[in-house]
Amino acid sequence: MKINSPLEAYKYLPQTNCGECGEATCMAFASKLIDRSGKTSDCPPLVKEKKFAKKLAELDRLLAPEIRQVTIGAGEKAVNIGGDDVLYRHKLTFFNKTKMFFDVADNMEEAALVARVKQIAGYKKFYVGRNLLLDGVAIRAVSNDPVKFAAAVKKVAEVGIPMIFCSFNPAVLKAGLEVAKDKNPLLYAANKDNWKEIGELALEYKVPVVVSAFNDLDALKTLAKTFAEAGIKDIVLDPGTYPTGKGLKDTFTNFLKIRRAGIMGDTEIAYPIMALPFTAWMAGIADPVSASYWETVMASVFTIRYGDIMILHSMEPYATMPEVHLAETIYTDPRSPVAVDSKMYKVGNPTADSPVLFTTNFALTYYTVESDLSSNGIDCWLLAVNTDGIGVEAAVAGGQLTADKVKDAFDKAGFDLKTAVNHNTVITPGLAARLQGDLEDKLGASVKVGPMDSGRLPGWMEKNWPPKK
Amino acid sequence: MAKKMKLSDLTSMFAGMDVEALEGVTIEGDIEIDLGGLGGGFDPMLAAALGQESAILAQHFARLAGMFGYPVGIGAPAAAPAISPALAAPKLKDLIPAKFDVANIAEWTTQIQEVPIGNTSADGGSRGKRVVVGGEKALPFFPDAPMPNRNQVTIDVFDMRIGLAKAVKENYDEVMDSPGEWAKKNVEKFNADMITIHLISTDPLIKDTPAKEAAKTVEEVLQAVDVPIAIGGSGNPQKDPEVLARAAEVAEGERCLLASASLNLDYAAIAEAAIKYDHDVLSWTQLDMNAQKELNRKLMKQCNVPRDRIIMDPTTAALGYGLDYAYTNMERIRLAALMGDDELTFPMSSGTTNAWGARESWMVSSPLKEDSDWGPREYRGPIWEIVTGLSLAIAGNDLFMMMHPTSVAVLKQITQTLFGMIDTEQVDIAKWIGAEV
C-alpha cells in the first residue's frame, strides 16, 4: 500500500457521507480501506458514477498491496497467495496464509493417485471453532511424458482442488493445460532454458506461472521482469529451496531479501514466493519419520519468513498438523483477539448434578478451559460470557466482565440456574474472584471461587464438588 | 461445415519447412482464422507470410460479401493485424536483464546485551564451559549483521517424580528419582548445553520441601555435571524468593540463572541474591511487553542488577494455544530493542516445554470424530515442541528450556543451520520434480 492513513484515502472518496457503504461517514470507510477490512467496491457512488472513475483507479493503485496477489485454481476452492504489505505481522497482520500443496507423481498407479488426492482434499483439523485444511495438489511430471501427465491431471482435476503443474518441459505443461483449461493451475516453472516457451503458455492459457532461478536473485528478477513486460501479471518466484546446510541458510536469506525488496517498493520482484520443503526428501535422510520432521521444520521456517505457497510430500499427521497450525498462527491478526460465540456450552455429558462454570469468549481462554475440563473427564456446563474477546484478568479490570454481563449471558443462553441444575451454584474463575458477592446478588445463586488457572480445576473439583450443603 | 484452425496449428503443420509464401490454397467451406492465442514454437516469418495470405483472402471475402450485399469490412480488420510481423511475433523475445539489490535495515542501531551463564575456573567457578547468549544486531539469522552467539538449549530436571507426557517420560523414567543422574543423562546422552533444575517440591501445596533441603539438590546437580545451570523454583510466589536465595548461596560463584524474578513476587530478594552470589536473573512476565519493560526497569534501577545479568522470559504459549501472541510479543520486543529501547535489549529465554500442554502433543487421538486421523502421539509430541521453539527462535529467542531429546536434537540442527554452523554436501534440487520418494 502506498498510503497508510485514512486521511489520504479520504481524499479520493465522494465525501458525501451517504452511508451506502454501511459506514456513517466517508472517513470511517476510509479507515476500513486502510486496514483492509473494506474494499473500494463497497462504495457504490465511487464505482457507479463516471466522474469518480479516475479517483477510483488512483485509489485502487494506492491501496494495492506491495506484494502482488495471485489466484490459483478456479471456483470456490481457488486460493489467493501474496497480497502482503508489511515485513512484521504486528504492523498490519499478514494476509493470505501460506498455502500448502502436496505432491502426486504422474507415474503413480491411478487408484493410489486418486486416493492420495482425496486424502489431501479431505484433510481437516478442528481449531478454534473452524477446520484447518490443505490447499491443493502439485502434480510432478516424473514421466516427462505429455500423455501420461495429461492423464494424471485429468484425474486430479476431477476432485476439484487447485493444482500446480510441475515440469520444466513445455510440451508436458501444455498437455496438462489442454485437459484442464479452465482450472487456472499454477505452472511450474520457467527457468533460464525454457522461459520463452513457458511464458508463451502462460500468455496463451492465461494462467499464473512460477519463474525459477536457484540461488540467483539477478536471474530471478530478470525472468520476472521479462515476463511482466510481456504482459504476464501473475508471477510466483522460486529462488530454490535447498534442504540442508549452507544451502538452506542461503535460501532463508534469499526469501528475506526478496520480500524486503518487494515491501520496500521494488515492484519488479514484488511477487509471492514459493518454498519447496519437498526437497527434504532429497537430503539423504534415511528414516522417513526424520525426513518428515525435517520437511515440517523447513515448512515452519518458510511459513514464518515469507513463503506464500509451498509444495510438500509427507501427509503423516505428525507432519501436517503442526504445519497447518503454524500457518494459522502466523496469519492470525495479532491486533484483534479471536472470540468464540457467547453461549452455554456442554462439556462432556452434563446432567442436573454437574457443575456450572463460566469464562470469557476469548477463544484462547475458552478453548483452554474447555480442554482442561474435557481432557480430565469433567462433565459440566461452561458459559462463554461476551467480553469482546478479552481474557478474564483484563476483562475484569477493564469492565468487560461484570456480574451484569454474566447474568445477561445466562439469560440469553436461556439457562435457568434454578431449574436446569439442582444445586443452584456457579463457579467463577479465580481471576474474577472479586465478582463473587455481586454475582450472588444478581444471580440469586451460590457462587464459588475456582482456581486462578483452569489447569488446577481437576484438583479443585475433587475438594469442592459437589458443594457441601 | 465450419472448420476452425488456429494459426499456430498451421505453423506447426509447416514447421521445419522453408515456407515463404502460400500458393494454390484451396478453400472449402467456411474458414475462420484465429489470430489470437499464438502458441509456443511460433515462427514469425511464417506468420508474416500467412498474414499476407490471410489479408488477401480477407479482401476477397470482403469483395464477395459486398457483391452479395453483406455488411462489409467485418472480417477484414480481424485479419489485418497479422500483416504486421511485429504484432504476430511472440511477446517474449529477449530477456530484459535486471540486477537484484536491497538495502540493510537502517533503523537497527542497538546491539542486544550479551549475557554469560556459568563460570569456569578462570571466572572463579567450576563449570567446564560457559555459554553466552544475546549479542545480536539484527533479527535472528538475518543477513544484516552476523549473529555472534548461537541458540542454546537447557534441558529440564525436576527435584521429584512428576507427571510427564508418555513420549517424554520414557526417556527419563530410570533417572527421575535422582536429579544428579537425570542431569548427567541430559548432558551426556542428549547433548544439553545447560541444565535447568526445577525445585518444584518446595511448593507448599506439593511437598513443601524446605529451602535448605532444596539447596542440596542444587549442589547435587552442580556436582553431577559441569555445564552451566539454571535454577527454577516451584512458581509459588511466597516461597520462591526464599528457595532461590538459598540455592543462590550454595551455588555461589557459578553464575547460574535464577528463574524467575516476576512482578508478583519479591523480585528484589532474587535480584539481591543474584548480585551477592554472582548469578544471572531471569526476568519473567506474561505476554505483555509493557510489563516486561517495567520489570526490567525495576531490576536495573531499583535493584541495581547489572545489564549483563538479565535474561527475559516473555512467556511461551504453545503452538495452537497462543503461540501467535508469544511470537508477536517476542518479535516486537526484539525489534524495539534493536531500535534502541534499552529496557528491552536483553536476550530471551523460552519455556518451550509448554508445548507439551497442547493436547495435540500428548492426547492419544483426537476427541473429535470429524478430525482427520491424528496419528501416533509418540511422533506428534516432539514435533510440537520443535515447531513451538523454532518459531520463537525466528522471533528472537536465544535460550530454550526443553524436554524431549528428539526435539532438542532437531531444534539444534535447524537453528545451527540457519546460524551457518552446519555444512553439508549441496543437494541437486533441479531434479526435485523427478525425485523418487
From TrEMBL, chain A:
Binding residues annotated for [4Fe-4S] cluster, in chain numbering: 18, 21, 26, 43
Cofactor binding comment, as recorded: Binds 1 [4Fe-4S] cluster.
Molecular function as annotated in GO: 4 iron, 4 sulfur cluster binding; iron ion binding; methyltransferase activity
Keywords of the record: 4Fe-4S, Cobalt, Iron, Iron-sulfur, Metal-binding, Methanogenesis, Methyltransferase, Transferase
Pathway given in the UniProt record: One-carbon metabolism; methanogenesis from acetate
UniProt keyword Ribosomal protein, yes or no: no
Cofactor: corrinoid; [4Fe-4S] cluster
Role, per record: Part of a complex that catalyzes the reversible cleavage of acetyl-CoA, allowing growth on acetate as sole source of carbon and energy.
Protein name per Swiss-Prot or TrEMBL: Acetyl-CoA decarbonylase/synthase complex subunit gamma
Gene name per UniProt: cdhE
Automatic annotation (TrEMBL), chain B:
Keywords: Methanogenesis
Signal peptide: none
Superkingdom of this protein's organism: Archaea
Annotated CO dehydrogenase/acetyl-CoA synthase delta subunit TIM barrel domain residues: 115-365
GO biological process: methanogenesis, from acetate; one-carbon metabolic process
Annotated Gene3D superfamilies: Dihydropteroate synthase-like
GO MF annotations in UniProt: anaerobic carbon-monoxide dehydrogenase activity
The keyword ATP-binding belongs to this UniProt entry's keyword annotation: no
Coiled coil: none
Pathway(s) per entry: One-carbon metabolism; methanogenesis from acetate
Quaternary structure and interacting proteins, as annotated: Heterodimer of delta and gamma chains. The ACDS complex is made up of alpha, epsilon, beta, gamma and delta chains with a probable stoichiometry of (alpha(2)epsilon(2))(4)-beta(8)-(gamma(1)delta(1))(8).
Role according to the record: Part of a complex that catalyzes the reversible cleavage of acetyl-CoA, allowing growth on acetate as sole source of carbon and energy. Probably maintains the overall quaternary structure of the ACDS complex.
Family note: Belongs to the CdhD family.
Protein name as catalogued: Acetyl-CoA decarbonylase/synthase complex subunit delta
Organismal lineage: Archaea, Methanobacteriati, Methanobacteriota, Stenosarchaea group, Methanomicrobia
